[in-house]
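for ur thesis appendix - TRAF-interacting protein with FHA domain-containing protein A. copy paste whatever u need, i formatted it the way the template wanted (i think)
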Amino acid sequence: MNSFEEAETEETVTCLHLTFYHPGQDEKMMFRCLNFCKREQIRADEAAKFGRDSSACRYSLMDTRVSRIQFSLQFYRKLHSSEHGFEIKNLSKKTKLTVNQTELGHLNKIDLPWKCIISFGDYQILAEIQEGESVDYFETQLYLAEAPILQERCLPSLQPIPENGISPSFFLSQGKSPTEIDENEL
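the 3d part is after this line
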């Protein structure tokens, strides 16, 4: 037997890809302490904290409008499953955190969807989970967006779009309710 055959099986690692955007990022440089484009390992039992306090947070945002500890991400294994996930918790007493359309107040937490937009204040963070097998640690990889994420990426709309392409909100803003018409009448 050679060393290749005796080597342990390599396991894949769950990676959380985070893309950051703020409209004043060029002038204020609030992301200067973040390490972009390099994967970073975090032990599975540690929470990844984001905020302005560099002694308490792994990821520091250099902005006085950001809470000392803004939010945390905790890696976990789902009950009776081999699947892994992340839980996001808002740790700010002053600022609400939004995950897609779900608003989280202080100490509220939810499971992080596999692809979502996290926002607070003027900050937008696109989070995408790349699944892996490792239970000892996970990785993060950070990116910087050039344009607003909410305009750049089209996440699935929660509101159905009718075949005629006119949104129901169009009628509501006009003070009219939608009416059904036969397509032959058009």
